[in-house]
Amino acid sequence: IRETNAHGVSIVHIKKDPTTQQVTIDKSSAFNRRITASTEMDFEGAAAGSGLLATRFSPNARKTRGTHNNCGNGYTPWGTYLTTEENFIGYFQRSGSDEYARTDAEKIALKRYGLGVKKDELYRYEKDEKGAPKKDTEGKIIYEKDKNGELIPNVDEQGRQIYLGASSRYGWETAIG
């Protein structure tokens, strides 16, 4: 539990006085919350219900859990603040037993997104004595760039958790709100 709660992002409602520019936290706001790797969310948008999102947790691909590795972040032109999930693909692996059931397009997409049959050597949930992180000539772990997967934008008035997703050229673009 402690490890999953350590991953994630806090959303805090901040107010800025237009005259003094002083910033304060609105502690009573319904928007204040912590999204961890265990937070349950509903899928919405074009990807909701897609077989590509089906899991044991949500066989109908309507729910998911959490976020982690929120390293990339910044302000938008609209005055909101986004945080993105990086290196998410390293948490997934496939056994290959479903390969026969995949269409050619799905096989191409999975390979393009980096979700091949080979186990990732940096992140894994199963113990694997053979795997080891890739390292550079100085022995530092190599992290792949451009592996962002999620965006967390503003939320609706009820503060409801929503996970939006759509297929893109580089992978599944998603937004949590």
List keywords for this structure.
11 strands; 8% helix; two-stranded antiparallel ribbon; 2 domains; 5-stranded mixed beta sheet; mainly beta
Give an account of the 3D structure:
Helices cover 8% and strands 24% of the residues. It is built from two helices and eleven strands; from the N terminus they run αββββββββαβββ. It is mainly beta. The chain has helices at 2-6, 104-112; strands at residues 8-11, 14-16, 23-25, 33-36, 40-44, 63-65, 72-75, 81-84, 150-151, 162-167, 172-176. It folds into two domains: 1-86 and 148-177, no CATH class; 89-145, no CATH class.
Condensed summary:
By secondary structure, the protein is mainly beta.
For the terminal residues, how far apart are their CA atoms?
Answer: 23 Å
List the uncertain runs: 119-131, 143-154, 166-174
Number of domains: 2
Strand order of the largest sheet: 6-5-10-11-9
Strand residue percentage: 15-25%
User: Could you report the average pLDDT, rounded to the nearest whole number?
Assistant: 72
- Total helix count? 2
* H/E topology pattern: HEEEEEEEEHEEE
Q: Assign a percent range to the helix content.
A: under 10%
Number of strands: 11
Oligomeric state of the chains in view? single chain
What structural class should be given to the helix and strand makeup?
mainly beta
Furnish the topology, listing elements before pairings.
Elements: H1 2-6, E1 8-11, E2 14-16, E3 23-25, E4 33-36, E5 40-44, E6 63-65, E7 72-75, E8 81-84, H2 104-112, E9 150-151, E10 162-167, E11 172-176
Parallel strand pairs: 5-10, 9-11
Antiparallel strand pairs: 1-4, 2-3, 5-6, 7-8, 10-11
